[in-house]
Amino acid sequence: MSSTLLEVTRASHEEVERLERLVVKDLQTEPPTNKDRLHQSHRVRNMIVQIIDTTYKLVDIYEDKDGARKDEIAALGGQTATGTNVFSAFYDRLKEIREYHRRHPAARVIIDTGDEYEQLLKEEPQIEFSGEEGSGRYLDLHELFNEYINSKFGEPIEYTAYLDVFSQPQKILRKAKSTRQYQEYLQKLLEYLVYFFERTEPLQDLDRIFSKVTSEFEEEWTMGKVEGWENNGRENGSAPENHTVIDLDYYSTAEELMVVGPEKLKEVLGALGLKTGGTIQQRAERLFLTKNTPLKNLDRKHFTKGSRKPEQNGVVAAPQVGDDVIEMALLEAKIRKLCDLLDETIVRTRENVEKKQALTYEEMEAEREEDDVQAESESDEDDQQIYNPLKLPMGWDGKPIPYWLYKLHGLGQEFKCEICGNHSYWGRRAYERHFKEWRHQHGMRCLGIPNTKNFNEITSIEEAKLLWERIQERQGVNKWRPDLEEEYEDQEGNIYNKKTYTDLKRQGLI
User: Fold this and answer.
1) Are 142 and 159 in contact (CB under 8 A)?
2) How far is CA 123 from the centre of its chain?
3) Would you place residue 243 in the very low, low, confident or very high pLDDT band (cuts 50, 70, 90)?
4) Alpha carbon of 247 to those of 243, 244, 253, 265, 313: distances in Å?
5) Among 189, 200, 201, which residue's Cα sits nearest to residue 137?
6) How far apart are CA 50 and CA 28, in angstroms?
7) Is this prediction's pTM over 0.70?
8) 287-312 pLDDT, tens per residue?
9) 3-state DSSP: the chain helix, strand, coil percent, rounded to 5?
10) SS3 at position 14
């Protein structure tokens, strides 16, 4: 009786509803410590997994591929395959129920499963962390650090310096990335970061995050704008790292192309294997030919002796990009994304390492023992009300920080940032750190201003706009100005700029 398909369906719906209520009830409780927060997150994650599994079972039942549900519903109405009438089916069913309860008398007792579900809220999932990870507060990258400093792509640096550079694989020279050792290093680093992220942030949907990273990466790769791998994967080929690339689509005539300057034109022509001599106009006209004409179709007279004709337009032809290169670039993109999500943990790890460097072995052992004792006594102190009349911020141990530390870091001082939507930051440290955080970066992007070091300490929208205008004006001074920088020579060998030469010639003086 209790195993009928309709009863299973009802019980499954009841289980889903109970678990949903438990999730809401658990999330309404604010965890006092980092350890409690982890336990809560993993409890909720486990309940969500149970809800998903039960829902899949319900979907299979409702799809009714074998027709069992349809037959059972028909049997309830007396429509059986043997052709029996409604009353015969009813009494047969009644007889089956009585026989079931005669064999299972305990089934008559109503068992309240509410207590069983409530026990889920008190469950403390086992989460494995190494001693260096401090219950998910710090990263443990020592193994990867040793691999980095002993590799060809790495450099001999301190562990604290490695914590600054491991999240920036795009800054490693491209020559050093063409090894199997580098690819294995990236895979190990990504594997560790994913494992750490799943343990500390179990409610985050990592598959959805990586799916978005992959789609953005594919778009940037096609355009040749992947950081550290610029101009790879473009339809027109790839340019060497040390050569300047000019996008000819922005210029409609050779005269417009002259504004980039003679040196840059010379550099690009040399990279393409074309002749670099002549006036600036001749160089621009020669380069402009490559906009609509494939380089292989250009007249041989435009190329230098001994050069090979590239097969693509606009940039130097290069070997086709392999799948290994694309895979490494995608691994780097995923690592950068995870490092952005774990930015606070990375900063906390660096601070912890620097603090340990100032401690002796005995002091570190005493601190570790104190942490163990504190972790054991946390459960007993949870029920006690925390006395905090000064409303001091809570530390990582769930207790108010000391007042002297509160004053030392200036946590009573409020800083507002107009670019962040007048968001408040308490303490100088949080204020300085926020310039690299997502909220400030988003505000700068909305203003159309790059978030560089020039704009540190600037929180006013008006000041940011004024500074950006000054920077643009200053950069404008370095642009090529033909009337002042293009040189002309008269018959006597005197050198003038274009403006002076034109004025003198107009007056008939030369």
Assistant:
1) yes
2) 32
3) very low
4) 13, 10, 13, 12, 10
5) 200
6) 20
7) no
8) 888 877 777 777 777 777 655 555 44
9) 60, 5, 35
10) helix
